[in-house]
Design goal:
The protein is of the alpha+beta class and 308 residues long. It has 9 helices and 15 strands. Helices cover 36% and strands 24% of the residues.
Length: 308
């Protein structure tokens, strides 16, 4: 009897529990607990991945579909139009051209159409239009800078004033003050070609602008006398044989420039003026600076002389 009892106690001791390969005991309860912990950890990791994926997908949608999202988020009628410009155009000028219905909703505003309409205005060099929710649009305009005035004669013989910028674009200016346009010289050109509802750009204006900018900045006493700049003998090709730019001063003097090396020509002209004033020479009709040795033509004697 004693032997049987001892055997029973031995069979129920901890030595009878099965051991894992790592030496840890695995009962059914322990295995279930470990599976439950692993399942919870896997679920937590999956949940984090789903949240991160949702955030990334939302950011991608916001960046790739701004227009579509803006329409969905529209919340009311258009109430404000904000206008920004680097020139002289006004908000009234803008509103007059937009001509939007009073009750139009922001979602229905066609900003691409507005952009195209304003870009067609000659005075506008570039334009950006955007919606600003919940009730506004913002229009940002960069304007052309006029460097010359141009008198246009239409088919009926009527004259009209146009402006020309440094890239040769011809346009009808608006909202310029008189003192802004008064100092600008007139442009004399052989022909101005029609293009659509306006005029084709005039060639050679970047070169002319270079001459004007240098003269105005470094030789102001000379530039202040300029009234007309003629490109009848200049098509825009600086290497063309006989290409010259002509300037008429307020005293009716004609100055002739080769279309390059303007600084040297203007420096020679300043010396010529100083020499003529010192010698008390009468009025000058023409000074041709396009040659290595400038040619001076006096108004009275109608004779030519080379200046050295």
């Amino acid at each position: 009897m004693a032997k049987k009892k001892a055997a029973k106690n031995q069979s129920s001791s901890w030595h009878s529990i099965k051991q894992s390969s790592a030496g840890r005991g695995q009962t059914k309860v322990a295995r279930k607990r470990r599976w439950a912990i692993s399942a919870r950890m896997a679920g937590a990791v999956l949940a984090v991945l789903l949240v991160l994926g949702g955030i990334g997908g939302g950011l991608y949608f916001l960046n790739s579909k701004p227009e579509k999202l803006a329409v969905v988020g529209a919340s009311g009628p258009l109430r404000n139009i904000y206008f920004q410009t680097d020139g002289v155009l006004t908000r009234d000028w803008l509103v007059e051209r937009l001509d939007l219905p009073n009750d139009v909703s922001l979602a229905d505003v066609n900003i691409q159409g507005i952009r195209a309409q304003l870009a067609a205005e000659g005075q506008v060099a570039s334009v950006a239009v955007e919606k600003r929710f919940p009730d506004a649009i913002v229009v940002n305009v960069q304007e052309r800078r006029p460097i010359l005035k141009l008198v246009i004669v239409d088919a009926s013989g009527r004259r009209g004033l146009r402006l020309v910028d440094a890239s040769g674009v011809v346009y009808q200016g608006a909202h310029y003050a008189t003192d802004q346009l008064e100092p600008l010289p007139f442009l004399d050109v052989s022909t101005v070609k029609r293009q659509g509802d306006g005029y084709a750009p005039i060639s050679g204006m970047s070169t002319v602008h270079g001459l004007m900018t240098l003269a105005q900045g470094s030789y102001p006493e000379i530039y202040d006398q300029w009234r007309i700049i003629s490109v009848r003998d200049f098509t825009g090709d600086q290497q063309e044989l006989g290409a010259t730019i002509h300037v008429v001063t307020k005293d009716k003097e004609e100055l002739v420039f080769a279309p390059d090396n303007f600084d040297a020509q203007l420096a020679r002209l300043r010396k010529i003026y100083a020499h003529l004033e010192e010698k008390s020479v009468g009025p000058v009709r023409r000074i041709d600076l396009s040659f290595q040795e400038p040619i001076i033509k006096l108004a009275q004697a109608q004779s030519r002389s080379r200046y050295r």
